[in-house]
Amino acid sequence: MNNLCADIGYKSINHYGEQLCGDHIDVLEQDENFTVIVLADGLGSGVKASILSTLTSKIISTMMADGLSVEDCVETIAATLPICSVRGVAYSTFTIIQLINNEMAELIQYDNPHIILIRNGKNYDYPKTEIIIGGKKIFRSSIKLLENDVFVAMSDGCPHAGIGVGYNFGWERDDIIIFMEALANAGYTAKTLSTYLIDEVNRLYGKQPGDDATACVVKIRRREPMNILFGPPSNRDDCNTMMSLFFSKEGKHIICGGTTSTIAAKYLRRPLRASLDFENSDIPPIAKIEGVDLVTEGVITVNRVLEYAQDHINENNKYEKWSRGKDGASLICQLLFEEATDINFYVGRAMNPAHQNPNLPINFSIKMKLVEELSKCLKQMGKHIKVSYF
């Protein structure tokens, strides 16, 4: 087993005037050794297309995860989905990326734009085998994964962008390759790469998309552990145990909370140097302890991290704010969202009386709720999360 993992991110825009997207992404991770990603593009747009693509992606991902062949998947879809009365076509187009042990990628493509693979910063023309299943032309590929490989799957709304507006024949595949090559080596997450691609598609459509457009990016990267300490233990006698476990873990170390950082400084026998520099007027300043990668305030800062996380897994509109920010919340986001793959939370259950004050201007959640919600968001980003309470 290698030390690689997959960072998966995607974003869609709807056909102008439609409430539902006719494309659908389904990611099914059975365990760390087997992941199926399906991008389905339903016929047309709106409600009907949304139903077709959702059913297609769900059927394929479930069947593939159960070990059934692509032939069985295609036949099941053809037999299951309704026939379009106008075009006489029963199902949506689809792209499948199957990751095995984070060592091999199996690509199965039917009538969607072919997946772009960027390797060593350049487009890589991977081999494809053409097969016929039920009269349909399917392309299959088997690729050994390398660190920093970037797979870009998309619906045909992407290369159609700009037809009759910015381009006569749309934003062609070669143009998309050049666009993604420029971004691939910049260290962006898969979510950010897919966001940049779809934002450019939307711009080329004049922000009135003539088709649903979806981009799904899979970035192969090395595992990066991260540790975050949040709050003192409920029993003071457990302080040394909690600190010992936290600092013994591989990876970077983040400490959130004034009391917590005081305990950590005492444990390390190093001074806690506070700062009065407010990088963001509503986020308390960071502090420094030698040997700790980041020291921040507690609940206010983590609450802002949660807000950014909830946006990141959806529209990702606040990316520019946290990705360039120097306040504690932004710095935590940069470490957790962009760097970390495996995150260990060490959460103290001690109650802070200040957080129970109903007159505070912010509606504080208790630490347990914050950690629970943040962990849920990070899992949706594909992070592996472990939470230990003290």
Secondary structure topology:
Layout: E1 4-13, E2 23-31, E3 34-41, H1 46-65, H2 70-80, E4 93-100, E5 104-110, E6 116-119, E7 122-123, E8 129-133, E9 136-144, E10 150-154, H3 173-184, H4 190-204, E11 213-222, E12 225-230, H5 239-248, E13 252-256, H6 258-268, E14 272-274, E15 287-289, E16 294-296, H7 299-312, H8 319-324, H9 328-339, E17 342-347, H10 367-380, E18 384-389
Parallel strand pairs: 12-13, 12-17, 13-16, 17-18
Antiparallel strand pairs: 1-11, 2-3, 3-4, 4-5, 5-9, 6-7, 6-10, 8-9, 10-11, 14-15
Helix pairs in contact: 1-2, 7-9, 7-10
Describe the structure.
The chain has helices spanning 46-65, 70-80, 173-184, 190-204, 239-248, 258-268, 299-312, 319-324, 328-339, 367-380; strands at residues 4-13, 23-31, 34-41, 93-100, 104-110, 116-119, 122-123, 129-133, 136-144, 150-154, 213-222, 225-230, 252-256, 272-274, 287-289, 294-296, 342-347, 384-389. It has 390 residues and is an alpha+beta fold. It has 2 domains: 4-221, 4-Layer Sandwich (Phosphatase 2c, domain 1); 225-389, no CATH class. A 6-stranded antiparallel β-sheet has the order 2-3-4-5-9-8. Helix 1 runs antiparallel to helix 2 (70-80) and helix 7 (299-312) packs parallel to helix 10 (367-380). The longest helix is centred in the N-terminal third of the chain and has 20 residues, at 46-65. The two termini are 32 Å apart. The relative contact order is 0.12. The model is unreliable at 360-365 (pLDDT under 50).
